[in-house]
Amino acid sequence: MKKKLLLIEDDAVFAQVLQNSLQKRGLECKHLNSLQQLEQLNEKDAFDYVVLDLYFDGDSGLTVLPQIRQNYPRASILVLTGYASIATTVQSIKLGADNYLPKPANASQIMAALTQAPMTNSTHDLGQEMIEQSGAELAGQPREQPSEPDVLSVDRLQWEHIQSVLAHHQGNISATARALGMHRRTLQRKLSKKPKNK
């Protein structure tokens, strides 16, 4: 039996290319091009995977993420976005996503993200426990000096702050622009130019 994937993406061209590629990999795909179309799904529909775009025109995919998690508790949920940031990654995971991937992403990357272990607190705790155990086993050996931490550029810090405010306003660009005291177009321009760390 084919595994079923729900693709919620407003970019029609990207969605069609991705859908074709995933179908060639043996998946049965259903595409929705708006968040409102979620209401039209039959309760009997069961999906193994859900790929959710983060930003729609004036809406945020995060607003429907808890509903998707509730409706499909066993599905692997991937948030896909062209506006990746630490703030939205954390918020996505807290709201029920299993993974988060920045665009552009191809079908191989998306399938890898959907099938790998979810980024949850229990996974983090297990990793931390393993680190502590290995540290105890290595007692008595000289420790490696920690490397100097990466320092973020001013542009990157500004971009991360904007992402944080955007997440606080649930992806609403207009409300975020008002909160930051800038024009909506200026905000969109800043969001589209993700600066490097240094």
TrEMBL record:
Gene Ontology MF: a single term: transcription cis-regulatory region binding
Annotated PANTHER family: REGULATOR OF RPOS, TWO-COMPONENT RESPONSE REGULATOR ORR33
Entries under PROSITE patterns matching the protein: RESPONSE_REGULATORY
Pfam families given in the database record: HTH_8, Response_reg
Keyword Isomerase set for record: no
Signal peptide boundaries: none
This protein's name: Two-component system response regulator
InterPro entries recorded: CheY-like_superfamily, Homeodomain-like_sf, HTH_Fis, Sig_transdc_resp-reg_receiver, WalR-like
Keywords (A to Z) from UniProt: DNA-binding, Phosphoprotein, Transcription, Transcription regulation, Two-component regulatory system
